[in-house]
């Protein structure tokens, strides 16, 4: 399988970037996007050239570090799959693949296709935690949660923080990511202690760094965890609740 690649090169966030052309005459359809980059880098190393920098870790669709753009789409052409799970079956012999970093003002480029997504970490620092009494752990059935709430919380806890939703959004909004965290923690009994403070702090943080949500829906379309678009409603709901309840809740 022959492929023509246009791969992004950028030394650091202050340097001018450009696409570098690479022809791959021996790609295999079962390769993932990351394995294709591994294959290219192996050839570069053997030739004494600098390999392309890109981020990855588990390569099982769990860690969320492998985000990049494939022909302008976060992760790749298949819906709701991370880049490490996107296979070349989706492409044809002779196709051109343009590989570049996730594009957002909130994601400065570190090198090549590696971006700084610490803006998402700062959102979590503002409220992505629960306050519990230290000491002996309570019995498993001490805090009761009904089945519906437990399943809904787990569905939203599936967010892997890859940041594709921000790159897909025309406004660069992080409402799907933040909404998923708010829904998950709100439904957890141990997360209700700081519910109002969490909503205010997390929403204030995304409004400083990310754009507004206009419900385009591209975010949910590319989310590897399948977080539903309805998660963004938690932003308005939790902020309104916090305003009505007062600053101490």
Automatic annotation (TrEMBL):
Cofactor: [3Fe-4S] cluster; [2Fe-2S] cluster
SUPFAM superfamilies (alphabetical): 2Fe-2S ferredoxin-like, alpha-helical ferredoxin
Domain of life where this protein originates: Bacteria
EC identifiers of the protein: 1.3.5.1
UniProt GO MF annotations: 2 iron, 2 sulfur cluster binding; electron transfer activity; metal ion binding; succinate dehydrogenase (quinone) activity
GO terms for biological process, alphabetical: aerobic respiration; respiratory electron transport chain
Keywords: Iron, Iron-sulfur, Metal-binding, Oxidoreductase
Keyword Oxidoreductase: yes
Record-annotated 4Fe-4S ferredoxin-type domain positions: 150-179
InterPro entries found in the cross-reference section: 2Fe-2S_ferredoxin-like_sf, 2Fe2S_fd_BS, 4Fe4S_Fe-S-bd, 4Fe4S_Fe_S_CS, Beta-grasp_dom_sf, Helical_ferredxn, SDH/FRD_Iron-Sulfur, Succ_DH/fum_Rdtase_N
Family: Belongs to the succinate dehydrogenase/fumarate reductase iron-sulfur protein family.
Protein name: Fumarate reductase iron-sulfur subunit
Organism classification: Bacteria, Bacillati, Actinomycetota, Actinomycetes, Mycobacteriales
